[in-house]
Design goal:
By secondary structure, this protein is of the alpha+beta class. It is built from two helices and four strands; from the N terminus they run E-H-E-H-E-E.
Length: 156
């Protein structure tokens, strides 16, 4: 299903509290490529933003031992599986978009009512906490496409 959370493997038995992984099916990540806020209802990737937040929300509901990382260093990993017939955009725009969307939104000045309960989904307080980044594209899969996001607390 589009925007659903689908773990690549069963993590329920061994997910540490500072680790969360989930997959967004059928979507490219939201890309930070305009002056419009990523969280704005008018952003061109607004549907992708909602899909990412919904997948993160579902993963957090499944893995209740994960608590958002309010302080400390964060690692972000993104693995994209593009569709066989479309080219992905550049990694830096995807990483910037994902990083913005998954941070705490309390400091945002933009109107966020359009996000409903998704406005409360956050995995780290501020994307400035991200100190380690990994991005890669895997082989194109004719059966489907999407991306996996992993957020982890890094040692101090």
């Amino acid at each position: 299903a589009i925007g659903s959370a689908a773990p690549d493997r069963d993590l329920s038995a061994s997910v540490p509290a500072g680790f969360l992984a989930f997959r967004v099916e059928g979507q490219f990540p939201p890309a930070k490529n305009t002056a419009t806020s990523m969280l704005s209802a008018s952003h061109p990737d607004a549907a992708r933003v909602r899909a990412l937040l919904a997948a993160a929300q579902a993963a957090m509901a499944t893995h209740r031992e994960f608590a958002p990382i309010s302080n400390g260093r964060v690692g972000l990993e993104v693995v994209l599986t593009p569709p066989a017939d479309r080219e992905a955009w550049d990694a830096t725009n995807y990483l910037g978009g994902i990083a913005d969307v998954l941070e705490h939104k309390a400091h945002r000045g933009a109107a966020l009512e359009h996000l409903g309960s998704l406005v409360d989904v956050w995995l780290y307080r501020n994307d400035r906490q991200i100190k380690q980044v990994s991005y890669r594209e895997e082989a194109r899969d004719p059966a489907g496409h999407g991306y996996r996001v992993t957020v982890r607390r890094l040692p101090s």
